[in-house]
Design brief:
By secondary structure, the chain is an alpha/beta fold. It is built from ten helices and eleven strands. The structure holds iron/sulfur cluster.
Length: 336
C-alpha cells in the first residue's frame, strides 16, 4: 500500500486549482458538481484539491494543501470518510484549522449533493460568497421516466399486483426493490415498492424483514425484486444467506440480460461484452440453484410463459423461493 500511496501522491488524477486561503477538498464526481455550482469560475478566496484516488489517500498531498489554508470544506458523496481522514492527517501533522463537512453540519447528511446543496454548503463555509441555492438539478433522470413500451417488466408487475390483490392487498405484503429499471415501476399505476435502498440490497433487506416477521408470527408475505445486474452486484450474497436461514421470502429476479437503466451495459451473464464481442456468460439460474434455495421457477416472458402462476406458486412456497423472469429489453437488447 505504501508503494501505491507514493504513486497516488504524484498522480495527475489528483490536482490543485487556485491558491485562495479557503480550501475545498472535493472527492470524485463532487468536483464536477462543485465547478458547475461555481459556473466554472474559481473565486480568488478559494483553492481546490480534487481527489480521485481514495485508497490509500495521498496524505502528503493533503498535508501540503492544509498547510496553506485557514479552513477547509470537504465535499464527498455518502459517508464522511475523506473528511475524517483529512482530520487525521491534520492532527498527525499538528495543523490546527477548521475542517468542515458533514460532521460539522456544513454539508447535508441526507440525499445526493447537487448544485443547490453544494451552493448552500459553500455559502455557510465562506461568508460573502452568496451563491444561488435555487434550481433543480437538470440532468436526465431515466429512473423517473415510465417503463418503455414493450418492457418485459410490465407483465411481471401487472401479474404481481393481481396476485397481491388476491392475497388481500398491499397491506398483506412487503415489497423490497432495487435500483435499476424496476424503479420506474414506482411511478403510477404500480407504485410497486415499499422499500428501496442500494444496488443488490433488496434480497438481504427482504430476508431480514421476512425472518423478523416470521419470528413475530407475522402473516405478511415478503417479496424481493432484484434485477440481473443487481443480482451479480451483491444480490447473490444476500440469496446465499436467505437460503441458509430458510427465510420465508419470494425473490423475483428480473432478467433482461443487461444493465438497462444506465444504458444497456453488459454484466457477467450477458452474451456479449462491452465491445459487443461474444463472451462466456455466467449461469445465473445455475448460481441461484446452487445457493440451496427451495424452489426456482424460470419464466420466459418472450415466449409468453405464465408469470402469474409462477408468482402464485412462489407466494405459497415455504422458505426461500426464486422466480427468474426472463425477457428481452426492447430498448437495449441486440438483435443477434
Ligand atoms: S430500458 Fe428496457 S428494461 Fe428499462 S424500462 Fe425500457 S424496456 Fe424496460
Amino acid at each position: 500500500m505504501d508503494i501505491v500511496r507514493s504513486r497516488f501522491e504524484v498522480s495527475p488524477f489528483n490536482s490543485v486549482e487556485g491558491d485562495g486561503s479557503y480550501g475545498v477538498i472535493a472527492g470524485g464526481f463532487s468536483y464536477s458538481k462543485l465547478m458547475k455550482t461555481l459556473s466554472y469560475k474559481l473565486p480568488r478566496e478559494l483553492g481546490i484539491l480534487h481527489l480521485t484516488t481514495f485508497n490509500p489517500l495521498p496524505h502528503d498531498l493533503i498535508h501540503t494543501f492544509l498547510q496553506e489554508k485557514e479552513s477547509v470544506l470537504v465535499l464527498e458523496e455518502s459517508a464522511p470518510l475523506i473528511e475524517r481522514a483529512v482530520r487525521e492527517v491534520a492532527q498527525r501533522a499538528g495543523i490546527t484549522l477548521p475542517i468542515c463537512g458533514r460532521e460539522t453540519g456544513h454539508v447535508n447528511w441526507v440525499g445526493e449533493l447537487f448544485s443547490p446543496q453544494i451552493a448552500d454548503s459553500l455559502n455557510r463555509f465562506l461568508s460573502g460568497l452568496d451563491l444561488s441555492t435555487e434550481g433543480e438539478d437538470s440532468r436526465p433522470r431515466p429512473s423517473r421516466e415510465p417503463l418503455c413500451e414493450g418492457c418485459p417488466y410490465v407483465p411481471v408487475f401487472e401479474a404481481l399486483m393481481e396476485v397481491i390483490e388476491e392475497l388481500g392487498g398491499r397491506d398483506e405484503v412487503v415489497v423490497v426493490g432495487d435500483p435499476g429499471c424496476m424503479v420506474r415501476g414506482q411511478l403510477p399505476p404500480y407504485e410497486i415498492m415499499d422499500i428501496k435502498h442500494s444496488l443488490g440490497s433488496s434480497v438481504g433487506i427482504a430476508s431480514g424483514i421476512a425472518l423478523s416477521l416470521n419470528k413475530n408470527s407475522g402473516k405478511k408475505r415478503v417479496i424481493a425484486l432484484c434485477g440481473d445486474s443487481g443480482f451479480f452486484h451483491s444480490g447473490l450474497a444476500g440469496l446465499v444467506d436467505a437460503a441458509r436461514m430458510k427465510a420465508p421470502l419470494l425473490v423475483m429476479i428480473l432478467d433482461n440480460g443487461l444493465t438497462a437503466l444506465s444504458g444497456g451495459q453488459p454484466h457477467p451473464a450477458s452474451l456479449v461484452d462491452a465491445r459487443g464481442a461474444p463472451q462466456r456468460a455466467a449461469d445465473l439460474v445455475g448460481m441461484v440453484r446452487n445457493t440451496g434455495v427451495g424452489e426456482v421457477w424460470v419464466v420466459d416472458l418472450d415466449r409468453g410463459e405464465d408469470i402469474r402462476s409462477a408468482i402464485k406458486k412462489g407466494m405459497d412456497t415455504q422458505g426461500t423461493g426464486v422466480i427468474v423472469a426472463r425477457g428481452r429489453c426492447p430498448q437495449w437488447s441486440r438483435e443477434d
